[in-house]
Amino acid sequence: MSLELPSAQMLEELLFAGTKAARLGGAMLESWRSRFTVTEKSRANLVTEADFASQKLIHEILLNQFPDHNFLGEEDLATRPTSSPFQWVVDPLDGTSNYVHGFPYYAVSIGLEFDGELIVGIIYDPTRHDLFTAIKGQGAFLNGQRVSCTDVIRIEDAMCIASLPTATSTSDPAVKRFLSMIGRSQTVQRTGSAALNLAYLAAGRIEAFWSSSLKPWDMAAGVLLVREAGGKVCKLNGQSFDLYQPEILATATESLQAQIQQIFVETT
User: Fold this and answer.
1) Was 151 annotated as part of a binding site?
2) Is 93 one of the annotated binding-site residues?
3) Cofactor(s) for this protein (predicted)?
4) In which band, very low, low, confident or very high, does the pLDDT at 78 lie, cut at 50, 70 and 90?
């Protein structure tokens, strides 16, 4: 039997804490950016340190307020101290390659599960100070203003983004899916931050995003944002989305979802 969801007041407290952690984690990333040198090796080392520093700060902030909560993070953070139904799913730096090169498309992503259900999502872009937030059943917001997915229903009118595996080849199915959308959608891009791709979809800036190589912390916050903005989320074949499986197809409308799935079927 499912547990009763937290009260509205508790949800607001959770969102407030997560937002504070995301903002401070983002500020930590920006402070480390100023230390980068032109040496690739030292850059790589600093990125690792920045990543860990951001996650450590986020973890400390949330643990201080919610000491019994569980955590799942990208940088070897997995704690289950109690049987609490709460689990924070944290990516302290989504878009690492972009961050290394000073390309301003990276973010802090913090999602919260309750009894396996996503209930809070926060994505913070420290370069633009864009804060995307969502509470289950209360809509999606950008800097406090409600946002929603577009109503685009034709694939030829859709701006799409794909996420490809870091190490891949032209024969990889992910690459074939990417190429299959060129000439069919209005445009198809690869940006390097799954969290921001999902946030942008929720905010009506793009119409579709897909990947077959993501981790829970890449998607947790963004999936809730898309759902709360009226979008659709599933696996690439249309089956129910599973946060702990690596694939996702997120679209602004059900019509786009069906069209993209059909194109993928024809591709394989």
Assistant:
1) no
2) yes
3) Mg(2+)
4) low
